[in-house]
Amino acid sequence: xxDTSANSPVVLRGRHDFPxxxxxxxxxxxxxxxxxxxxxxxxxxxxxxxxxxxxxTYLIAVGVGAYGINMPVVWGTMISNFVWWIGIxxxxxxxxxxxLLLRQPWRASINRFxxxxxxxxxxxxxxxxxxxxxxxxxxxxxLPLPNVHMHWPQWRSPLVWDFAAxxxxxxxxxxxxxxxxxxxxxxxxxxxxxRPAQLFYGILALGWRGSAxxxxxxxxVYFLLAALATPLVVSVHSIVSxxxxxxxxxxxxxxxxxxxxVAGALLSGFAMVLTIAIPxxxxxxxxxxxxxxxxxxxxxxxxxxxxxxxxxxxxxxxxAWYSGEPYERAMMVQRAIGPYAPMFWTMLSLNCGVLQxxxxxxxxxxxxxxxxxxIAINVGMWIERYIIVVTGPSRDxxxxxxxxxxxxxxxxxxxxxxxxxxxxxxxxxxxxxxAITIFEVxxxxxxxxxxx
Amino acid sequence: xxxxxxxxxxADPEALVEAARGMRQRGYRxxxxxxxxxxxxxxxxxxxxxxxxxxxxxxxxxxxxxxVYALIWYSxxxxxxxxxxxxxxxxxxxFVVIAFEAGILGAAFAGFLGVLAANGLPRYYHPVFxxxxxxxxxxxKFYLLIEAADPRYRKGVTRGQLTRLxxxxxxxxxx
Lengths: 452, 175
What we know:
heterodimer; A: mainly alpha; 0% strand; B: alpha+beta; Alpha-Beta Plaits; 2 domains; four-stranded antiparallel beta sheet
């Protein structure tokens, strides 16, 4: 690596050969050589999956009032969970697509699980707007389907844009992910010893044989998909922010929202990448494939995104004052000293305060500390979304009707249920598919002359 | 069972590139190379034509955006026009948002399905899988295939040439 300074850690540590790389990554899946606590952790996540199912059933049976929303705050944790999860997904696309376009070699060993993280996060995110509908079984009314009602969706509504954006994002992420998996599925097909595994991976590999003619087309299209995913990811979170900015509610109606939301998405997304990667590299002893360099770079991107988010906070406050609009100003003051003040200051101290620790190289390379910071940022970013969603409506244009959203057990049941379901899916993914891209790590080892 | 071709195995990518170049220089045309990861050098040596798939992706994107925009236009102008205080029915700025997303979706599908179609995948049977040596199980070796249909193919001669170019093993594969 010519462009790295002498003291920065390497992308790939030690010397490798092809049987070793494919063997180590493939055997996690095929031999089921999982660390002792893998299934214990999966079991705990599975309990949370049950909690999610119970909570959703309760919510549908009782109605949306069960999770503490009421006039004037009719947007609650379903919306903040949605924004939080969709944001987490975005870092995965950034790693896999943007870093591919920029030809950054350090993406190779983390892009696969980052993409999987995107898929599962989008799957979780997609639940919430539907649950928020109150009558979730009518969600298909958002689609232009020929039905007996003879109605059309309201094309001018950000909620319909949202539906289009999330559906497109989920589909394109899935295509991109599957395309990246094809060569690795062929490796697993050839490695598999048992007939069911051979059939499973063989069918999924679609008969990939690594022909030079195939690779030539594959690479062109893979780059094109990455080039498509990049504007898509920006458009998705911008559209999510338009759900807010199209309303004239104080605190929602702001032009800073699209870039501010995209930066927030990257901050929380990279925090989630670290939350998964740090235990993953430790548990599966792949510290030489996912190196300190990856962790260091992700932490640097966190601080870059975090500073844009901090600018967003400042800009929001400034324009509330500069607008001269008494309700905008009152909302901003109430956010800092009103009923949500403890959450607001927690958010600031986590997202702007704790984040600053990442300026120090020693902190970025201390894995337990970095993990703790990543968790803190995840929490901080959830609070940020909650603050944005509830403080506006709680202090809108009719002071006599000011009120609050009360967090109930159901809010947390659904939030923690979705967190558990997300991690359960991540565990299943690690068990079933190669979590590190075999062919790209081999290519990297070849390019960097790290072959034995 | 007819003979499909000869499969030569090479230990490292440089040997494959050298062998592919050597066989091209000897006049072989019906050859293909197989590698566990993409190798740019092979494109020039095997004279792989520049793929037209980017145009397919562009067409898919335009088609997706145009179809969805047309659907919206039809719904607001023709099928269900609602006059809301005299505002224009065809208020294009909000429609562009959904058309953009549809364009990305169309382009992604065109690219994904296009690359599969152009590569002839899924194809679960292919003669190269008959080769004992052809496997990516151990990370993969680097393979060069000379088809028996090549006009310059001579059983003993071709095998000898491949061996001299550094092939670890050369294997006859059945169609």
